Amino acid sequence: xxxVIKTVQKNCxxxxxxxxxxxxxxxxxxxxxxxxxxxxxxxxxxxIGVDDVGDWLTAREELWDDLExxxxxxxxxxxxxxxxxxxxxxxxxLNPQGFIxxxxxxxxxxxHFFIAKLENHYQRxxxxxxxxxxxYARDMAAxxxxxxxxxxxxxxxxxxxxxxxxxxxxxxSPVDSPLGRAVEAYDFEGDTEIALDKMAAVESxxxxxxELGEVLAGKRLGEQWNEMLNTLPRSTAEIMLRAIRDHLADxxxxxxxxxxxxxxxSIHFYFGxxxxxxxxxxxxxxxxxxAWYASGDLKHIADIIEPSxxxxxxxxxxxxxxxxxKGANATDDIENLVEKSFL
Length: 343
Known about the structure:
Layout lengths: L1 H18 L5 H16 L9 H18 L7 E3 L2 E3 L4 H8 L4 E7 L5 E14 L2 E12 L6 E4 L2 E5 H16 L6 H6 L8 H30 L1 H9 L4 H26 L2 H9 L3 H6 L1 H13 L3 H28 L4 H9 L4
Parallel strand pairs: 5-7
Antiparallel strand pairs: 1-2, 3-4, 4-5, 6-7
Helix pairs in contact: 1-3, 5-7, 7-9, 9-13, 9-14, 12-13, 13-14
């Protein structure tokens, strides 16, 4: 497996070389610090200083200069060479050995690769769900969950890392907020690793719900939705469209489970980790959270679920129609429509 892992990591490095510049400077430095932590096997209980990362970061950027123009390498297993994006055939060999592999395209067609320990595999609602543990090769972005070719990949190690980044984000400005309330529900002042384990165990179920919602949203919106996202230039319209899709997915699945499980820490985290654009276009959802926080009555959140389903699907279809008519020139009209269509 050493050579397989080495190949997958090289493909991760090539992807990073091509796409690291897509991050803002602040996010880039945070991602690189956590990449350094992962490579060096440093516990989340340990503080990493700027000086610790400096030389490593310089060397990594020099490596990227040599890799940026290279093609992604095929993955060779037991003498057979597989295309790096042929998940099905690669996993047919690796899964019985206790490994899980994934290669797919994320935001703006950014490739993501990883290979990890396979912890669980099951089906739900006809969808295959793979749960991974320790990661042996990964890129700097390392999304904690992906839906690829109708399969859902949940990466527990990357989930813990994402949660840690959220904790760090709040610690930089520790004001009373939904995110802060979620963090304070766990003992991060004691043992960080144990707190992350507990938080990840709870939040992984909601991440699965969101990905199942993505599957349902995809069936409603069709492949033309992805074509639209890949065609439109980087713009406010693109960010709005991703927010609409996320809201639709959650209205189809996640919000029902948030209400059903009635875990205050998870409710705080759901709203606290929501991206700015999602909050902007869904003020009534945020008002429902504040009403719940003030009263403890989940009816405020439950009552917004069905209107959300209808609203976001209708708005998504309207945006698609604009794209069908105007193609890559649809950004202004989509932005104007969404600005008039907050919920």
